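Predict structure. Chain length: 619.
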Amino acid sequence: MTCSCSGTPTSTTWQPSTTPCSSNSTRPGNARTDLLRPSGHSCRCCLHSLLPSFLPSIIPPSHPLTRPSYLQASYPPFVLLSVLPPTLARLLNSYLLSVLLSSLSLLSFMPPFFSQLPSLVPSLTSSYLHSFLSYFLVCVLLSFFFYYLPSFRCGHCKKLAPEFEKAASKLKGTVQLAKVDCTAQVDTCSRFGVTGYPALKIFRNGRDSASYDGPRSAEGIFEYMMKQTGPDSVRLVAEEDLQTFVHHCDASIVGVFSDQESPGLADFVKAAALLRDQFRFAHTTQMKLSAPYGLQTELVVLDSYSKSSTPSWSEVQFHSLRVCLRFRGVLLFRPPRLANQFEDSVVVFRDLVTIPSLRRFIRDHIFGLCPHMTLESKDRLRVRDLLTAFYNLDYKHNVQGSNYWRNRVMKVASKYAGRGLFFSVANQKDFRAELEDEFGVGTSDGGDVPLVTIRTKAGHKYAMREEFTRDGASLERFLDQYFAGRLKRYIKSEPIPDRNAGAVQVVVAESFDAVVNQPDKDVLIQFYSPSCPHCKKLAPVYTALAETLSADANVIIAKINAVDNDVPPSYDVQGYPTIYLAPAGRKDEPVRYQGGRELGDFLRFLRRQAGQRHVKQEL
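Prediction complete.
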């Protein structure tokens, strides 16, 4: 056998040694370390290049690999560094060491218990959680956890699971995804503050970094997590760097500064760190890169000039003043595929760069006149009143055809700019279920022409029933009726019940305002699903509550089928049953019920929220 570093022949007989390694014995603060090494071999680089000094206790004592039968010296073992806890010595085994020997690279090393997990999204237990975070702290730096309940208990978890698995495949080697079953790992989920499901958390450097609030599709998770990797703002040096960065499917924000010491650059990078989840940032100090976009140098008087001070390369002495040629600005590049004749492809920001000013600039210009709405960007776009044209949009394979209808929408949109309504286009197939369920529009209704809808930030929905004409005239008529208040809202609703004789009032979307929003009534409203077992279990208790309070005319106990009826936007319903109190006099501030499921729990909640007016006699 030959040592790879020196070529010195070494013995092929491997045996234990209790002699301290020369490279470890002199380390300050460390005790003597027993080691395993080849007889007569003391090569320090071999002993230290393969075994990572940060290796944690990755195998629990109960793991089969710790059995004595696994500890036979069948492979060449290497030194145990003194930075490791003594208890780790008995956990190291021939299998682990052989992997280290053959890998020659930390990034290809995989602890044994990970190799037993076939899924790209390993399901972690409490005993493996620390090991998982410690390993990926070094090898991946970023990990993403999915806390869930079994699918029979959580429909949202069941829906997310395949998307999470697809995202894991795309992120393999960059971001590690994992999942935790909160029915089995109760302590772990409690430790990280998980109260609702599914809960998604981002771990950076082995620590809980932030809750994930991005899209729930595989592509959306992939794009969101890719934005979490790398620097907050990419430094650009050459023209090629700039063109590569801005030729992207998303908008790009590039800061241009005179030098690395520019105060605006510091604020720009801070803003990038805050907004990197949503937008792409880069910066440069190469002023020539921004010249084609109209950014110019400016003459700035700094202060009086002192002979003892040395001006920077951009500063000059002018009589007793110290002046500087400063270059500062931000360029917002819209995606090249969305270039059009109605707006500039590059927007220039010349004001003082601060975090608030940069936020405002991005908010006002990032989407342009008519952005491409995707499943990932819909929530950001729908914070305002939004018209969307749905058609066979496909920017990957047919840019020209996709822009054909978009240009016709933009032509009309330019006539209605500034009136509080924003415009977008979207792929009809991506939103097929939404069009059918929430607008009552079948995707076959429009044929090859766009289907047009309006959704306001208040949750009101309108659908254009007239066919979209190529000259845009039908769209203009639809908008004229909208602004005149003559359009009828679309509401997904079951029929209003002919009789409501039960103790629990049945509410539908069409009757929601009339029942729940009565200004002088305290209304407890349950949002349920007909197929939800928890809702069925709650039903007798909820009925008993209604019967108990039936004599109080100021309290209404009601329920609504949230699957077949629209849910008002002020009520956040992510699972079933979800219960809210709409208090008298405060209908715009519904209070979510999060207590127990017994009769007394509901009565105490109502008394606490409604004050002394109600249910006093029942307690």
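Summary: The CA atoms of residues 32 and 486 lie 86 Å apart.
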